[in-house]
Design brief:
Largest sheet: none
Distance between the termini: 36 Å
Structural class: mainly alpha
Strand content: under 5%
Order of helices and strands: HHHHHHHH
Number of strands: 0
């Protein structure tokens, strides 16, 4: 993406952000973003199974987009972690719906650690989470559309600035890509909640 196109993209995102919500609404969304950033910095945020599924998704996405190198994959996983942390921040005060293990096609009894070491199970879960994130997202995220739109706008501006480098381009961190990864991470949090049997924040979530 050229420097001119990058500036235009950022300008359009800012305009969208200011059109979506009032000043008070944007301030609330920014508070959520800042809290999610703190949680996302915790290396123990995801559970063993969601770490495995998230990593598998990154590998699949990177291969499909012909992205190579550790830095690019780390950037993608950072966005996924941010989506996971966003759900962790939002689930309590906004009373977001939860899913149970059967929603992820996991039959009881189950062992999360054992599933994390089962490559076939991880691959199947990758696609279940992808499906919920893409076509069933409103089953777990019920904020008004304009609030989520504003949140994605803030995330796009901040994550592009944080993650873009000489090897990870703005094109690879396009708005649609970032929203898709945020949604994926958000649903991964729902998976950990289902495994824990509760939508409460994980004890190690920071």
């Amino acid at each position: 993406m050229s420097e001119r196109a990058r500036r235009q993209s950022r300008r359009q995102t800012r305009v969208e952000l200011h059109r979506s919500l009032s000043g008070a609404g944007r301030a609330w969304v920014m508070e959520v973003w800042q809290a999610a950033q703190v949680r996302a910095a915790n290396p123990l945020l995801l559970g063993p199974l969601t770490t495995a599924v998230g990593t598998n998704f990154v590998e699949s996405h990177a291969a499909g987009q012909r992205l190579g190198g550790k830095e690019a994959k780390d950037a993608l996983f950072t966005v996924i972690k941010t989506g996971y942390a966003s759900r962790a921040v939002l689930v309590g005060p906004t009373i977001q719906p939860s899913l149970d293990a059967s929603s992820f096609r996991i039959a009881a009894p189950f062992d999360g650690d054992q599933l994390a070491n089962d490559s076939a199970a991880v691959g199947e879960l990758r696609e279940v989470v992808r499906s919920i994130a893409s076509t069933g997202f409103d089953s777990v995220m019920t904020l008004p559309r304009e609030v989520w739109t504003s949140y994605v706008a803030i995330a796009t501006l901040r994550l592009q600035r944080q993650l873009a480098s000489s090897t990870v381009t703005w094109r690879e961190l396009h708005r649609e890509t970032i929203e898709g990864l945020l949604r994926y991470g958000y649903v991964l949090r729902c998976l950990d909640e289902a495994l824990d049997g509760s939508p409460k924040p994980r004890a190690d979530a920071g």
